[in-house]
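User: Before I run my own analysis I want an independent prediction to cross-check against. Here's the chain; please return only the C-alpha cells and, at the end, one sentence I can use as a sanity check.
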Amino acid sequence: MVPAFLTAQPFAPAAALEAFTASVELAGPGAIVSFSGHVRPHAHGAPVTTLRLQAHPRLTEQGIAEAGADAAARWPLQGWTITHRIGDMAPGDTIVFVATASAHRRAAFEAADYLMDYLKTSAIFWKQEVRNGTSEWIEPRPEDYTDRDRWTQSG
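Assistant: C-alpha cells:
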C-alpha cells in the first residue's frame, strides 16, 4: 500500500482501513490502529460551510513520508499509511486517515498519535474555513504544538 498520499477526491475511511489491513496481513500484526478526522460542522460558534485545504503536493508528500519513516524508526511498525484530502470539503467529509500496524498495541497507538501531531503542526498545508460567507485562515492551536513537543522532550 502507498504509505502516504494526497487526494482531492472523497474517500471512505472503512475502505482505506480494509486496504491497509490487507497490505500488512502477511506481517501478522497484533495491532492495527486507525484514526480518521472529519470536517466539523461548527467552528468559533458559527456553521462551517466549506473547509479548504491547499498543499504543495511534492513537498507535503515528502514531509509526510519523512514523518512516516521517523515513526517507523521510533516504533517497531509493520506498516503505516496516511491519506489526506486537499481541496474543498463540506462538514462531515473525511479529511485524513492514518493507520499504523505493529506486533503490539502501544507502538501502533503511539505511532498513529505521533503522525497526527506531525500533520496538525508541521505538514505543509494551508487551511481555510468558510463560515457565514466569510473565510478565515486556520493555524494550529497552542495545544497542538504542546502535543507535538512531547515527542521531542527527553525523559
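Sanity check: Residues 57-74 form the longest helix (18 residues).
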